[in-house]
């Protein structure tokens, strides 16, 4: 069975990403074509990049890097749930991506974002990063607005119709994850 990791891309107290990831997971888990797991960067708790070498050398010295690499190596594809911080990617998410290379390569990725402009600028940046990590980013994006998809207490209140966009996205992500698995097996 294909394994898809749903990455919770922000870690501040009171963050929105955990609610969005849980909502996505609850829709995704009923699909028969893949297994899903939430990967919470708050639990992973990586320090700022502290490896002597760039990740491309695949010579990880630190235990936290080796553990992170082992975790990410298990997955065939990813859904990244991201906020937009200063028109870009939350630092904790960029840091977690920077830590590894081979473990991201030849895997598919889909983006879920939120912000005052639905997080589109963060995702545009993530698409550039995905290219450098040799990840195949699917077109379909699931997007939320911080003013209309959350209530005044910060509670996530997505419209029912948004569930359809999750399945549209997974209909792109899962076939690409499957295809890239055979690429990894043949190199
Ligand atoms: C450091 C920081 C920078 C932000 N920059 C932006 C931004 O550029 N665009 C935007 O739409 N929202 C921005 N926001 C507001 C976030 O969209 C909002 O706080 C959101 O809840 C952050 O995601 P999180 O709750 O998962 O941390 C920023 C928030 C923070 C904390």
Keyword list:
Rossmann fold, single chain, alpha/beta, binds flavin mononucleotide, 39% helix, 187 residues, 6 helices
Describe this structure in words.
The protein has 187 residues and is α/β, with parallel strands linked by helices. The protein has one domain (3-185): Rossmann fold. It is built from six helices and five strands, in the order βαβααβαβαβα. The protein has helices spanning 17-28, 41-44, 63-73, 91-98, 120-132, 162-185, and strands spanning 3-8, 35-40, 77-82, 107-115, 135-145. It has a five-stranded parallel sheet, sandwiched between helices.
What is the gist of this entry?
The chain is α/β, with parallel strands linked by helices. The protein has helices at residues 17-28, 41-44, 63-73, 91-98, 120-132, 162-185; strands at 3-8, 35-40, 77-82, 107-115, 135-145.
**How many domains, in number, for the residues?**
1
Structural class: alpha/beta
Tally of contiguous helical segments: 6
What is the annotated CATH architecture?
Answer: 3-Layer(aba) Sandwich
Uncertain residue ranges: none
* CATH structural class: Alpha Beta
The rough form would be described as globular
Name every ligand kind in the structure.
flavin mononucleotide
Summed over residues and divided by their number, the pLDDT gives a mean of 98
Write out the CATH superfamily name: Flavodoxin domain
- Our measurement of the CA-to-CA distance between the termini, rounded to an integer number of angstroms, reads 21 Å
Radius of gyration: 16 Å
**Number of strand segments:** 5
| Strand composition percent | 15-25%
Strand numbers in spatial order across the main sheet:
2-1-3-4-5
Instruction: Return the CATH topology.
Output: Rossmann fold
* Secondary-structure element order, N to C: EHEHHEHEHEH
């Amino acid at each position: 069975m294909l394994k898809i990791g749903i990455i919770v891309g922000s870690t501040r107290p009171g963050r929105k990403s955990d609610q969005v990831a849980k909502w996505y997971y609850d829709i995704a888990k009923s699909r028969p074509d893949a297994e899903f797991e939430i990967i919470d960067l708050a639990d992973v708790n990586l320090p700022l990049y502290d490896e002597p070498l760039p990740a491309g050398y695949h010579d990880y010295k630190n235990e936290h890097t080796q553990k992170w690499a082992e975790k990410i190596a298990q997955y065939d594809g990813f859904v990244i749930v991201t906020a937009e911080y200063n028109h870009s990617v939350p630092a904790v998410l960029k840091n977690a991506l920077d830590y590894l290379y081979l473990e991201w390569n030849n895997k598919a990725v889909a983006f879920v974002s939120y912000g005052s402009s639905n997080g589109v600028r963060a995702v545009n940046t993530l698409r550039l990063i995905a290219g450098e990590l040799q990840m195949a980013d699917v077109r379909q994006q699931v997007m939320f607005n911080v003013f209309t998809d959350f209530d005044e207490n910060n509670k996530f209140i997505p419209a029912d119709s948004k569930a359809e966009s999750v399945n549209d996205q997974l209909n792109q992500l899962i076939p690409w994850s499957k295809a890239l698995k055979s690429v990894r097996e043949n190199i």
